[in-house]
């Protein structure tokens, strides 16, 4: 029985790949065309068809030309709406994918770009992961559709299968197509709620090392050896000698050396959460830090690039 069901699904995927949910991943951009767009009548459309059938029988039975003309007019409008529903999806292009950063347990916002040419596309619906986004596309102007996805685990999160459909213009027919873009977003690890600060070894050569600031503190006379970039040239022009800008220096801060092997008594996921918290605190506090992992080392630095590089390494830990 199981083999028969598997064979039936394989046949459906081979013969009707756009009709089934089993469509494999596709490289972007994805262009919708007539071979992957399907149309079925809605419940309202089936009810209208039954009503038109009854009206047709009554008009023919009583030889009522006005009723017959009205029935044909409504039938022609229904058939025309089926063509409009098809043209709403036909030629639609799904382009690039962008995403924000998120951590496990949060929702990551994924931006999908849709564009079309020829005519406007109205009342488009995109179903993904239990959420529905309604949007319209103007010719020549790409439309950005934001999708909320639940970040259930760290690392790469592949985009799920999506259903793009429309009931425009009269709700009599539903045209749809399945999409499965070959794209994924990176989810950072969960941050530990609270815990100890990292250990700073005594006698660290980098501990408390001051760095020059960029805030003007005062002006003083030039002394041999002062860097040329700190000379206040405009003010010196109105003075009998050269003036030099003294810049404020930040208060000494310890450089944190974060080491995977220095954390004891925790499993791998708890270690990752603790290191992620330390990196978050160091980044927000303006500290410099290094990170040592079993398969890599990130030297002492600070800033957004260093922050994302370290969190990416933690997110992709096996």
UniProtKB/TrEMBL annotation:
<keyword id="KW-1133">Transmembrane helix</keyword>
<protein>
    <submittedName>
        <fullName>DUF58 domain-containing protein</fullName>
    </submittedName>
</protein>
<feature type="transmembrane region" description="Helical">
    <location>
        <begin position="37"/>
        <end position="60"/>
    </location>
</feature>
<keyword id="KW-0472">Membrane</keyword>
<feature type="transmembrane region" description="Helical">
    <location>
        <begin position="66"/>
        <end position="86"/>
    </location>
</feature>
<keyword id="KW-0812">Transmembrane</keyword>
<feature type="region of interest" description="Disordered">
    <location>
        <begin position="198"/>
        <end position="217"/>
    </location>
</feature>
<feature type="compositionally biased region" description="Basic and acidic residues">
    <location>
        <begin position="201"/>
        <end position="217"/>
    </location>
</feature>
């Amino acid at each position: 029985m199981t083999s028969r069901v598997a064979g039936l699904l394989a046949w459906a995927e081979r013969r009707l790949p756009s009709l089934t949910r089993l469509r494999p991943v596709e490289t972007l951009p994805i262009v919708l065309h007539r071979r992957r767009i399907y149309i079925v009548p809605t419940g309202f459309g089936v009810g209208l068809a039954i009503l038109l059938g009854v009206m047709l029988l009554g008009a023919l039975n009583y030889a009522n030309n006005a009723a017959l003309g009205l029935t044909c007019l409504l039938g022609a409008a229904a058939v025309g709406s089926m063509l409009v529903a098809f043209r709403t999806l036909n030629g639609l292009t799904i382009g690039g994918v962008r995403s924000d950063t998120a951590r496990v347990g949060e929702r990551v916002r994924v931006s999908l770009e849709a564009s079309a040419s020829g005519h406007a596309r109205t009342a488009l619906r995109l179903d993904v992961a239990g959420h529905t986004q309604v949007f319209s596309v103007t010719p020549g102007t790409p439309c950005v559709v934001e999708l909320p996805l639940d970040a259930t685990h760290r690392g790469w999160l592949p985009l799920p299968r999506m259903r793009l459909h429309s009931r425009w213009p009269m709700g009599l027919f539903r045209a749809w197509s399945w999409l499965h873009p070959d794209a994924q977003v990176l989810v950072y690890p969960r941050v530990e709620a609270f815990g100890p600060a990292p250990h700073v070894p005594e006698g660290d050569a980098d501990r408390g090392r001051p760095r020059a600031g960029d805030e003007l503190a005062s002006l003083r006379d030039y002394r041999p050896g002062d860097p040329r970039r700190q000379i206040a040239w405009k003010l010196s022009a109105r003075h009998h000698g050269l003036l030099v800008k003294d810049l404020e220096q930040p208060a000494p801060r310890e450089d944190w050396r974060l080491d995977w092997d220095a954390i004891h008594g925790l499993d791998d996921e708890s270690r990752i959460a603790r290191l992620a918290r330390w990196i978050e605190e160091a980044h927000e506090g303006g500290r410099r830090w290094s990170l040592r992992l079993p398969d890599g080392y990130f030297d002492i630095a600070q800033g957004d690039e260093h922050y994302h590089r370290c969190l990416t390494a933690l997110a992709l830990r096996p």
